[in-house]
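User: Just a sanity check before I run the rest of the batch. Below are the structure tokens for the first item. I only need the designed sequence back.
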């Protein structure tokens, strides 16, 4: 009966489209809570490694719906400065295990490009792998592209559902961030 209840809740759009968390967020917060509440180093390490694997294994084959792509774009535009400050923070208070970008300008160029991709609505994920990189990203040196790639991975890793946005919007945003990060280091 419990499984049927979860299935019913996941099919209820007000829950699945806004309130429901996602696997990555639960795993990532697990390690943070373990640190705060006395978890062992091995428990923390296992959670951090699982979170890292989940991010690395995200692909660009996820379903994309315009309303959720636009939700993600709106969140980026509204929180642009905070996102850039977070992904370039040299002294983070949470998730200090994540490597951060070292250059604010690279992070800005990346975030602007990702927001532009999200405005493609239903086609946002496809555009992440097929559209040319923005001029600002294309003209970066290999080292700067690598740094922008780190910013993308950090943003994808720091995104928390449902705190920051709905699970479907986060899934789209993470997929695009991971796809763009891979394109930047080719």
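Assistant: Here's the designed sequence for the first item:
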């Amino acid at each position: 009966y419990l499984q049927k209840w979860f299935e019913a809740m996941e099919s209820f759009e007000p829950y699945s489209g806004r309130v429901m968390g996602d696997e990555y967020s639960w795993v990532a917060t697990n390690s943070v809570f373990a640190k705060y509440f006395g978890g062992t180093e091995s428990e923390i390490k296992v959670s951090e490694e699982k979170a890292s694997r989940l991010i690395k294994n995200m692909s660009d084959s996820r379903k994309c719906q315009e309303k959720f792509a636009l939700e993600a774009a709106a969140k980026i535009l509204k929180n642009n400065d905070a996102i850039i400050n977070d992904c370039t923070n040299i002294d983070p208070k949470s998730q200090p295990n994540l490597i951060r970008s070292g250059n604010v300008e690279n992070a800005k160029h990346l975030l602007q490009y990702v927001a532009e991709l999200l405005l493609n609505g239903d086609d946002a994920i496809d555009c992440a792998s097929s559209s040319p990189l923005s001029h600002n990203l294309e003209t970066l040196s290999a080292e700067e592209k690598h740094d922008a790639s780190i910013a993308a991975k950090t943003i994808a890793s720091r995104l928390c559902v449902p705190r920051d946005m709905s699970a479907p919007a986060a899934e789209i945003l993470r997929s695009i961030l991971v796809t763009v990060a891979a394109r930047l280091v080719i």
